[in-house]
Amino acid sequence: MIRIRIRALTPLAASGLERMVESDAGMAVLAGDEDGEEPDVVLAEVDTESGTSHDAPAEASAGGAPVVLLADDPAGEWISEALASGARAVLPRTVTEGELTATLRAAAAGLIVLHRESAAMLPAFRPADAGPGPAGEPLTRREATVLRTMGEGLANKEIAARLGISEHTVKFHVAAILSKLGATSRTEAVILAVRRGLLMV
User: Fold this and answer.
1) Which CATH number characterizes residue 186's domain?
2) 39-60: per-residue pLDDT in tens?
3) Residue 63: which domain range?
4) pTM greater than the 0.85 cutoff
5) What span, in angstroms and rounded, lies between the C-alpha atoms of 66 and 60?
6) b/e for 48-60, b at 16 or more Cβ within 10 A?
């Protein structure tokens, strides 16, 4: 039996998600945080308008269970940050019952799942050791912001404080920037960015 904990934005949404999950005989919804049982998967709705979606996995699952996120904007730039912070799946709120239960099973098995609407974000989610990205691969808006702070000489901790994101997320963005620019260091990345007109000095 796969145990699911639901963290919805409203009681009505929680009720609807519970019905969808329990349509699968191999799944059970845990009642609340006080029951003492650890979930196998956390299903959490996120508010992408708040700008804190990338922190949702840590907030939703302090116990370390894999997190499946539901959002109105499953193709936004925030997805790479959410995945870097530990989310195992990102789905639209309009997901079907079959898609939801299949995703929960995959997350419980340790897989990462993205809905087809999120496919455009795949290039932004690259492991640090994946090598250089395709020539001319554009930086995301968040990466461009991190690059500007790198140009100011700020350390990861200072960038995290300024942008209101975790230091881990900053490291993820720095690695993506180095990969996309074909740089081997932060200094080289800034120099290349200036030469390419991506950064003004």
Assistant:
1) 1.10.10.10
2) 899 998 887 665 444 445 544 5
3) 2-124
4) no
5) 9
6) beeeebbbbbeeb
